[in-house]
Specification:
- The chain is of the alpha/beta class.
- Helix content is 28%, strand content 18%.
- Helix 7 runs parallel beside helix 8 and helix 14 packs across helix 21.
- Belongs to the glycosyl hydrolase 3 family.
Length: 783
C-alpha cells in the first residue's frame, strides 16, 4: 500500500495540507477546529483510552492543558500526552495528531517547571536577550512533555493599572512590548517549529484599555489609536518572528466584539498586519457572543459569526463549533469553504510542528529537563535584573558594618506571594479549591482524582527572608510578619516593633496577592478602584518609619500601586513584580550589592488613581493643564515615570551626534555613555523621538529604541541607534500610514523624564506612505 501524500515528509507542506483536506469528511474537519479538556479523559483517577475514543471519533484539533489542569509530574504528564496521542493516531480514520496547549506567561504552568518572574517582571529587565533565554527554558520543558502550543506572550498595552491583568503584560509602551514579545517568541518557537513551540500573541485587541479598568469591559478607541498603539506590538511580533497563533480579546471595541468581528480579526489582523497563522479563541469567548455581548441568539449563530470573522479554533472545549456549526452548514447559512479555510490553517500548523513525524515524546527522560541548576540560576538572574530601585538615600547597598536586620512584612516569608496569577500553583487554586467549594466548582475545569488531582504544589521557593539569611550568614536577622496582605488585624505590629528596637536597619516587604480566586488583590478578574497598598500595610509602614531606624521598603506585587506616602518615608524603595521561585535570592543580590540594580519601570507609577490613564506616550497637550498647570490637589506629573530606575553607580552622557540626509533614509543617532561611579553596573539607554509639527497630534515623547549596556567603573561606550523613517510613521487625517518631512526632536536619557541629551533637525523630502507591517525596527550598535 502506498503512503498517502499527507504522510510523506518529502512532499511540500502545501501539498500535504491540501491532500489531507481533500480526504476529510465534514465531521473530521469540524473536529479539527475544536478542543477538549485533558481531564475529561480521566475517570476515577485513571486514564481511560475508551473515553478518549468515545469523545474524539473524528479526531480533535487540540487538547486543553495537562500541566495547568493536573498535579502530574513531568514524566507522568508526558505519558498522559502520549496515551491521548496514541488514541488520536490509531483509533481515528485519518490519524491526525493532536496539539496540547498550555499557559506560559511567567514560566511553563506545570508542576516542577521553573517559575520565572511574571511578564511585567520580565519587562522590567528591558533585556530582550534575557527574555529569549527564559522562553528557551519554557520551550525545552514544554517539548519534554509534548506540549506544543503556549498561550503566551501577552501583548496587551497596559495603560490602566486598575485592570487586574497588568502583571501579565510587558507594560505600557508598544515599542518595548514589541521588542520583548519578539524576543519571547524567538526563544519559544525557535528558527524551526519542528523543534519549537507555537506561541500565541494575545489578546487581540485593545483588551487592557476597558471602561473602568474592568476585565472583559467594553473598549472605546478610535481607529488611529487602535492601530498605532494597541495593534503595534502584534504588528512587531508578526513581522519579526512569524508568530504562529493569535488569541482574540474578550472585549468589544467601539461595539464590535473582537471574537466575531471580521474588521478586527480579518481586515486588521490578517490584511493590514499580514498575519497568516491560526486564530484561537480565548476560553469560552465564542459562547460569550451569545450570553455576554448579545450579538448572537444561538450557539450555532455564535459559531458562525466567529468563524466568518476569522477565528479558526474554539478553546477550551467544543461548544459553538462542532455540531452547532454543522447545523448552520446544513441549513445553508455557512459555506463549507469557510470551514475549509480554517481547517487548512490548523493542519498547516500541525505539519509545521512536525507532529505527523514525531507525535510522541520520551516520557522516561522528561523530568530531567525540569529544575536544573542552570534554570534556577537563570531565574535568579531574571529577578535581580528586574528589581527596580525607585529611591535611595545611600542606605543601599547594605553596609558590611550592619550586624542586625529586622525583616518585616507579609511578603517577607510567604512563598505564595511570589506567585503571579498564571504561575503554578497560584493558577491551580481555581481547580483544587473548587473541589471543596460548590459555588466555584462551576467555574472550574472537570475535577480529577489520584495522581491527576491538582493541588498546592510548589517548586522550592526562596522568600526574601530566606534569601537575606543565605546572603548574610554572619548577620543577625529577625523576622516579624507585622500584618496580612488583606484585613484589618494589627496584632502583629507589636512583634514588629519589638525586633526593630534591636535592629540596625529594617527591610520591609509589603505585597499584593495575585490569583484568580478571591480573596486576592490582583489578577485576572480582580480589578480595583484603588491603587493603594492593601490591608494594614500602609499603617505598618507608618509605624516602622516612626521608629527612626533606617527603612528599606520592597514592594512585591503585580499591581501598579500609588506609593507617594511610602516613598516619602522610606530611605530606599524598590519595586519587585511577582518574582517566582528565586525571588528571595534575586532581591538579596540587589540589597547586598552583589548585583547592581538596573531594572526599569515598564509602566508609569501615578501619584493617585485619579491621574489614570497616565503614561509616557501621551499625545501633544497631555503634559500640561491649561490655566493653572496642575490639578487642584496634585501635580500632573507621575510619581515615577516610565523607564525610571536607579543604580548604585552613576552614568554620564555625552552629546548627541545625528547623521541623516533626508526623510527617505535611516537616521543614525550616537551618544557616549560613561560609568562615572565606583561600581560596575548596567544602564538602560533610552531613545525617544518627537515629530515637532505633524498633521495630527503626535506623542510628545515616543520610545524609538533602547539598549541595556554593562559598564565597568570608568568605562565608556558609544551607543548608536539607527532609526528607519518607517519607525516615525503614523496614521494621518486620511488614515494613510505616512512619514511626513519636517522637524524632529530626538532625545536620549535614563528614563522618559530624565533626558540627558537632545537635538532637533529638519528632515526634508517627500511624504512617504508605508504599511504598518513594513515598519523597520530600530537597531542598536554598541562600541
Amino acid at each position: 500500500m502506498s503512503t498517502p501524500s499527507y504522510r510523506d515528509p518529502h512532499a511540500s507542506l502545501e501539498e500535504r495540507v491540501e491532500h489531507l483536506l481533500s480526504l476529510m469528511t465534514l465531521d473530521e474537519k469540524l473536529a479539527q477546529l475544536g478542543c477538549l479538556w485533558s481531564t475529561s479523559f480521566v475517570r476515577a483517577g485513571t486514564f481511560d483510552p475508551e473515553e478518549v475514543a468515545r469523545q474524539i471519533p473524528h479526531g480533535i484539533g487540540q487538547v486543553t492543558r495537562i500541566g495547568a489542569a493536573t498535579g502530574l509530574h513531568p514524566r507522568e504528564s508526558a505519558a498522559f500526552m502520549n496515551a491521548i496521542q496514541k488514541v488520536a493516531l490509531e483509533r481515528t480514520r485519518l490519524g491526525i495528531p493532536v496539539i496540547v496547549h498550555e499557559e506560559a506567561t511567567g514560566g511553563f504552568c506545570h508542576r516542577d517547571a521553573t517559575v520565572f518572574p511574571q511578564g511585567l517582571g520580565l519587562a522590567a529587565t528591558w533585556n530582550p536577550a534575557l527574555v529569549t533565554e527564559v522562553a528557551g527554558v519554557i520551550r525545552a520543558q514544554m517539548l519534554a512533555v509534548g506540549a506544543r502550543h503556549a498561550l503566551a506572550p501577552v501583548l496587551d498595552v497596559a495603560r490602566d493599572p486598575r485592570w487586574g491583568r497588568v502583571e501579565e503584560t510587558y507594560g505600557e509602551d508598544p515599542v518595548l512590548i514589541g521588542a520583548l514579545g519578539s524576543a519571547y517568541v524567538r526563544g519559544l518557537q525557535s528558527d524551526d517549529l519542528r523543534q519549537g513551540v507555537a506561541a500565541t500573541g494575545k489578546h487581540f485587541l485593545g483588551y487592557a484599555m476597558s471602561d473602568g479598568g474592568r476585565n472583559w469591559g467594553p473598549v472605546q478607541l478610535g481607529p488611529r489609536e487602535l492601530r498605532e498603539v494597541y495593534a503595534e506590538p502584534f504588528a512587531a511580533v508578526i513581522r519579526n518572528t512569524g508568530l504562529a497563533t493569535v488569541m482574540n480579546s474578550y472585549a468589544s471595541v467601539d461595539g464590535l466584539p473582537c471574537t466575531g468581528s471580521p474588521a478586527i480579526l480579518t481586515g486588521l489582523l490578517r490584511e493590514e498586519l499580514g498575519f497568516g497563522g491560526v486564530v484561537v479563541a480565548d476560553y469560552d469567548a465564542v459562547t460569550q457572543l451569545m450570553n455576554y455581548h448579545r450579538v448572537a441568539a444561538t450557539r450555532g449563530e455564535a459559531g458562525r459569526l466567529a468563524l466568518l470573522a476569522g477565528l479558526d479554533m474554539e478553546l477550551p472545549t467544543l461548544d459553538c463549533y462542532g455540531e452547532p456549526l454543522k447545523a448552520e452548514i446544513e441549513a445553508g447559512r455557512l459555506a463549507r469553504e469557510v470551514v475549509d479555510m480554517a481547517v487548512r490553517r490548523v493542519l498547516h500548523l500541525k505539519f509545521q510542528l512536525g507532529l505527523f513525524e514525531q507525535p510522541y515524546v520520551d516520557d522516561a527522560v522528561a523530568h530531567a529537563i525540569f529544575q536544573t541548576p542552570e534554570q534556577r540560576t537563570l531565574a535568579r538572574r531574571a529577578v535581580a535584573e528586574s528589581t527596580i530601585l525607585l529611591t535611595n538615600d545611600g542606605v543601599l547597598p547594605l553596609a558590611p558594618t550592619i550586624k542586625r536586620i529586622a525583616v518585616i512584612g507579609p511578603g517577607a516569608d510567604d512563598e505564595r506571594l511570589l506567585q503571579g496569577d498564571y504561575h503554578y500553583p497560584a493558577h491551580q487554586e481555581i481547580l483544587y479549591q473548587a473541589a471543596q467549594d460548590v459555588e466555584i466548582a462551576g467555574l472550574a475545569t472537570p475535577q480529577t482524582a489520584g495522581n491527576y488531582a491538582p493541588g498546592p504544589y510548589f517548586t522550592p521557593h526562596v522568600t526574601p527572608l530566606a534569601g537575606l539569611r543565605a546572603a548574610l550568614p554572619d548577620v543577625e536577622i529577625s523576622y516579624a510578619r507585622g500584618c496580612e496582605v488583606l484585613g484589618n488585624d494589627t496584632s502583629g505590629f507589636e512583634d514588629a516593633l519589638r525586633i526593630v528596637r534591636e535592629a540596625d536597619i529594617i527591610v520591609a516587604v509589603v505585597a499584593g496577592k495575585s490569583g484568580l480566586l478571591r480573596p486576592v488583590t490582583v489578577g485576572e478578574g480582580n480589578d480595583s478602584t484603588s491603587l493603594d497598598l492593601t490591608g494594614m500595610q500602609p499603617e505598618l509602614i507608618n509605624l516602622l518609619a516612626g521608629t527612626g531606624t533606617p527603612l528599606v521598603v520592597a514592594v512585591l506585587s503585580g499591581r501598579v500601586h500609588t506609593l507617594a506616602s511610602v516613598a516619602s518615608q522610606a530611605n530606599a524603595l524598590l519595586q519587585l513584580f511577582p518574582a517566582g521561585e528565586e525571588g528571595g535570592h534575586g532581591l538579596a543580590d540587589v540589597l547586598t550589592g552583589k548585583v547592581n540594580p538596573a531594572g526599569r519601570l515598564p509602566v508609569t507609577l501615578p501619584r493617585s488613581v485619579g491621574q489614570v490613564p497616565i503614561f509616557a506616550g501621551q499625545r501633544a497637550g497631555a503634559d500640561r493643564i491649561p490655566l493653572f498647570g496642575d490639578y487642584i490637589d496634585s501635580p500632573p506629573t507621575p510619581l515615577f515615570p516610565f523607564g525610571h530606575g536607579l543604580s548604585y553607580t552613576t552614568f554620564a552622557y555625552g552629546d548627541l551626534s545625528i547623521h541623516a540626509t533626508d526623510i527617505t533614509g535611516p537616521i543614525a543617532i550616537s551618544i557616549e555613555v560613561e560609568n562615572t561611579g565606583k561600581f560596575a553596573g548596567d544602564e538602560v539607554v533610552q531613545l525617544y523621538g518627537r515629530d515637532d509639527v505633524a498633521s495630527v497630534a503626535r506623542p510628545d515623547r515616543l520610545l524609538l529604541g533602547f539598549a541595556r549596556i554593562s559598564l565597568a567603573p570608568g568605562e565608556c561606550r558609544q551607543v548608536t541607534f539607527t532609526v528607519h523613517p518607517s519607525r516615525l510613521a503614523f496614521y494621518d487625517p486620511y488614515m494613510r500610514f505616512v512619514t511626513e518631512p519636517g522637524a524632529f526632536t530626538f532625545s536620549v536619557g535614563a528614563s522618559s523624564a530624565d533626558i540627558r541629551a537632545e537635538s532637533t533637525l529638519i528632515l526634508d523630502g517627500p511624504l512617504i506612505e508605508y504599511k504598518q507591517r513594513e515598519v523597520v525596527n530600530t537597531t542598536v550598535r554598541i562600541l
